[in-house]
Design goal:
The protein has 402 residues and is of the alpha/beta class. The protein has 14 helices and nine strands. Helix 13 links the parallel strand 8 and strand 9. Helix 11 crosses helix 12. The two termini are 36 Å apart. The N terminus and C terminus are likely disordered.
Length: 402
């Protein structure tokens, strides 16, 4: 992918041509003269969006926003780096008050759940529940998380943020922090929420690494998954490709920011790892030169992998999309500098009747500065996600395993 520096004079890329290593395997095709899908259904989307997936025809009626063109906010939305950085630093942060609950896991680890304060008293016990999984080093304090939370809450949903180990100032009681492939914590959280609200349907949304964790859970634990639907946004899918991409050109700025967040979190809990110094490279964890170096020193050791390459290869959620058995919406940006579009498993999404993929022409990473709330408000994706989830809730869509 191109690695040109930030530029206020960059021209918006074509919205009809997407870059992939493989040809796009679209389920829905449209032209100026055609207004039906390949199955003859009335069209529900605009040609500026690429839509595919085995479940696309089934889920398209859920959306009212997809018939509108995707219009990135002028200048900001025309450059993927500018959009990514703008969203990270200048997007508004809604005011949300949380009530924290800490769960103890079987390995003596600790998971922090942040529930919206007061919902346990004001909402019925059967209100739909949305579990949010933030990205790498992210948590309940992040703007994109809070915007989605506010949107879901306005529809009467009960929302809880699943902060991975060590994130959002959560306590750390074992030498293991956030990882891309450890699904035991997700199982624990979903089981806990299910037992606490047995009458409620439960859904989940994950961003970036949180999206990868969520899809890994859906695929690996499909035989026991009790979620009724899920959404994955800007998922890196293939961590081998994402790792290579992160160290190219201007993308180094994101690698620097992410490794800084990882090392700061690790520094707070380094004493837990120092007791096992022969296994962990504590000094490299405190001062990593790249995210890859941190994962080599700390993350892959905590999971028992022999190398960071083995960790990345075995943590790719693209390998398990074919096993997903509940409705799954994936939203990617064609110009994402951190989750490259060529890592998206097009063929597996197309072959799975439970999956649908939407690719926007712009969006950057966690950006999507477009729509009525741009540039400072909620990302364009929030309305799309809520429409999908509301459709599943109203139709009680929980397909049997196929």
């Amino acid at each position: 992918m191109a690695t040109s520096p930030l530029s206020l004079t960059s021209k918006p890329p074509s919205i009809t041509r997407l870059r992939h290593q493989r040809p796009p395997l679209t389920t829905v095709r449209i032209s100026a003269a055609a207004v039906t899908t390949t199955t003859g259904m009335p069209d529900h989307h605009h040609p500026s969006l690429e839509i595919t997936g085995g479940g696309a025809d089934r889920f398209l009626p859920a959306f009212n926003t997809l018939h509108l063109p995707y219009k990135p906010f002028p200048i900001i939305g025309w450059n993927r780096h500018l959009e990514t950085i703008f969203a990270a630093f200048f997007r508004t942060v809604p005011e949300v008050k949380y009530r924290r609950e800490c769960l103890r896991t079987q390995d003596n680890g600790t998971i922090a759940l942040d529930w919206v304060y007061g919902d346990h008293r004001s909402l019925p016990s059967d209100s739909p529940i949305l579990i949010l999984l933030p990205g790498l080093t992210g948590g309940s304090q992040d703007s994109y998380v809070k915007h989605m939370l506010v949107k879901a809450k306005s529809k009467g949903w009960r929302v809880v943020v699943f902060n991975s180990r060590g994130c959002a100032n959560s306590p750390v009681t074992t030498p293991q922090l956030q990882t891309a492939s450890f699904t035991a914590d997700t199982c624990h959280v979903v089981d806990h929420v299910s037992s606490r609200y047995p009458k409620a349907s439960i859904y989940a949304v994950g961003w970036s690494l949180g999206g990868n964790i969520l899809v890994n859970y859906l695929g690996r634990e499909h035989h026991r998954c009790s979620l009724s639907g899920a959404v994955s946004l800007c998922n890196p899918f293939n961590l081998v490709i994402a790792d290579e991409n992160l160290r190219k050109g201007f993308n180094n700025i994101y690698d620097r920011a992410l490794r800084g967040g990882l090392s700061r979190t690790f520094e707070k809990h380094a004493s837990l790892f120092e007791e096992m110094h022969d296994e962990y490279n504590v000094q490299a964890g405190l001062n990593p030169r790249t995210v890859r170096e941190y994962d080599e020193a700390i993350t892959r050791v905590s999971l028992g992998y022999k190398s960071v390459d083995e960790y990345y290869s075995n943590s790719c959620s693209c390998h398990v999309v074919q096993h997903v058995r509940i409705p799954l919406l994936c939203i990617q940006a064609a110009n994402d500098p951190i989750a490259p579009i060529e890592a998206t498993p097009y063929s597996d999404i197309k072959d799975n009747p439970n999956c649908m993929l939407i690719v926007t022409p712009q969006g950057g990473h966690l950006g999507w500065v477009a729509g009525d709330d741009a540039p400072f408000g909620a990302p364009w994706t929030d309305n799309v996600v809520i429409e999908f989830l509301e459709h599943l809730r109203k139709n009680s869509s929980k397909p049997k395993s196929t």
